Structure formats: C-alpha cells, structure tokens
Amino acid sequence: MKRLVILGGGESGVGTAILGKKKGYDVFVSDFGKIKSNYIEVLGLNKIEWEDEKHTEDLILNADLVMKSPGIPDKAPIVKKLLEKGIPVISEIEFAYQYTNAITIGITGSNGKTTTTLLTHHLLKQGGLNVGLAGNIGKSFAWQVAEDKVDVYVLELSSFQLDGIVTFKPHIAVITNISPDHLDRYNYDYGLYIESKFRITMNQTEEDYLIYDNEDEAISFWLKNNKTKAKKLPFSLTKKLEEGSYLEDKTIINITNNKQINMPTTNLSLDGMHNVKNAMAATTVAQLMNIRKQTIRESLSNFQGVEHRLEKVLKIENVQYINDSKATNVNATFFALESMETPTIWIVGGVDKGNDYTELMPLVNEKVKAIICLGVDNKKIIDSFNNIVDVMVETSSMEQAVKVAQKIAEKGETVLLSPACASFDLFENYEDRGNKFKSAVRGL
User: Fold this and answer.
1) Cα separation, 423 vs 405, whole angstroms
2) What does the pLDDT look like over 316-358, one tens digit per residue?
3) 443 is in an annotated binding site
4) Which of 127, 153, 225, 249 could form a cystine bridge with 291, CB 3.0-4.6 A?
C-alpha cells in the first residue's frame, strides 16, 4: 500500500486525504499549526490518522508521495528534507487531476482571478452545465473529485498551486494579468513568479486554449520568448483582434471559433475597466463551452460580484463605505483607486510583500484626500505618500481606523478599505479583515 502524507490540515489537505483514502492510499495528515475542529471531525469519521502542532519526521519521511498545502513554502525544513530524499511533493490540484475525467478550466493571474472564476462558473451554470467550483476557492477540488458528481470544473489557481503540478493540463487556461505579488516566496525575483503563472499552459496541446490579456507586459514578454502549444485567444481594451475579445464603441466584441457575440459594457453588472477584461475572459470560456449567446448576455448583467472586492457596504451621512479587503497587492489597489469617482479616504496597510507604491502616486494625488494606515509597521506607506496627502493617520485596529475615517469624511466622499498588503499582522486573513471592516462600519 502506497503511503500518502499530507502537509497541512486545511481545506485542500483534508480534501486530498479523503480522495487518497478512497483511492487506496495509506494516508497521514500532519499540520505544524492547529487543525480546526470541523476538519478533525471529518478526519475521524474517515478513519484518517493525523497530528497537529508538529511534524513527526519518522511518520513523514517514509512517504511515497507528499501533497503540500499551498501555504507552506518550499523553504520549510520538512519540505527541504523530503526533496533531499527524492520524495515527490505535489499540490492538491495535481493529485486530484489524475482521478477525474471532467473538463477542467484553470484561471490564474495576480488580480481578477476570483471574479473571473466566479463569473465563468456563473455563465456555465446558467447555461445548464453540471459545473463545480474549486481550487483557491470554495470546496476542495480533491474533495469534489472524491464525490465525483460534475462534468466541468472551474478552478481558481494560485502560483503556489501551479508550482506543485507535474501533469495537470486544463483544457482551457486563463491568465487574467501578471503584476508583482508574493515576491517573498520567489526570492524577490519577478521572473520566477511569471514562470510560475505560465505553468498553467505547460502541458497544454493543440486541442487546448489559452486566454490572456493582450496588453499585459509580463504576459506579452513571456509569449514572445516562450512557446505554448495551446490555441491563443487574447482579449484587449485597445486593439481590434481577429480572434478573442476586444472593445469597440463601449461594446465587447467576442469572436471565438467563428462565432461572434456583442455585449454593451453598460449592461455589465460590475463597474470598472478591469471588470470589462474579466467579462471578456469569462465570455471567451462560455463561447468555447457552447453556451447560448442570450444566456451569456443575461448572466453578465445579473452576476452579483465577489465579497471583499469593491463591495459597497453602507452609505452613512452620504459617505459611501467600500470593502476591498481582497486587494492584497498594489496592482489590485490600483484598480480600486482608479474606479473611485469622489474624494477618497483610503485605509491601507498590513504585511508588505515587497511592495512598490510608485505606480499609485498619480492616482493618490488625484483622488485621495487622507490616508489611514492600518498595520503593525507603516513606515513604507508613510515614506511613500507623506508629500502627496495632507492628512495621514496611523491606527492599530479596524474599529479605530473606521472611526477616524468617519471623522475625516465629508458628505459625498468615499471611505475605501483597499490594503495593498497581506492581512496576517492584525487579522486571520483578508476575509476576516473585510468582515471586521463591515461590522465596524455597521457599528458607526
């Protein structure tokens, strides 16, 4: 019996354990942190051995195969030891992929991947397909494969998940955009991060498709210097394309496999030019999957959006409060600030992942009235914007940040939480940060 060791007892770890057990592996789950009680219960019900708050080497280094959760870096001592012994270390995506015959659609990118994934899932579901949602979002891919009830999977894939693939090949791959993010995991080498994103297409053949942003510098540079066998379907806001999606007279024009669909951007349920791009990517997938044009149009106009992504919370005394906690890098915050139409009080800060704030300067100059720092160490933000905005306040809790914002904001203005940083200094994750923002706003 082959031994499968799983590092990390979260959603992807427990899902992989269930699938591994079903496929006849001797399974062991090890988590260096604490495993949540609901997951412990599931492991118990499935008679799967586990440990937490430690890694017992004797129980791990005897593995035939190891699935590592995406949050664990390759630099972790236990991972180094496994690699030195030549034991294969893969991601949940790679493990589960071997056991499904479903069509897979993989979506990656520095920003927009969650919105594009949910929008694509919405289009396919409204089109009547039996479709699952997994990867970096929702219920674990492996868990769903173990239950095996769907024909198509839409997978949101992070660079960490792609780092652990060997044979995984999505039939349709989407790269929304690439901008510096998570550089702390890539030795501060942007090139390594870009390579990591493009692993999504490395196993694709002539029968597969790659959908991507035609204007993105990093993507264009990679495609100029590297080959993919997949059929390329770009999208663009500035250039007329023979195939793919482009914008003309405020209308999205999509031409895929000789089928054309037009959609006025005014009918989209989501605001902002970045969402026009997300809609283009999702439409191209829907066209490839033969969803009816009428269904595509209706679905794009009734899609509800993503929690913690430019989410309008409340208007209080004519001040709009917006939760964009999901903006964990500079590029995401760029889109948020770009879509602001009134003077903005900007709440920013957290764990810096090697951020360069230069690209935000013109937008901050034009739109931001005051900056509220919310992080343990705000020095870099203060140094970057000190000369651009008149009001700068440091705070150490969400409640305090929101109260200060309320004092500064005047009628007709906006308070925007768009941190541009990871959340792990003061919060569990970006959802926790966004929820605390929403409850602080509701408490005003």
Assistant:
1) 19
2) 999 999 999 999 889 889 989 988 989 999 999 998 878 899 9
3) no
4) 127
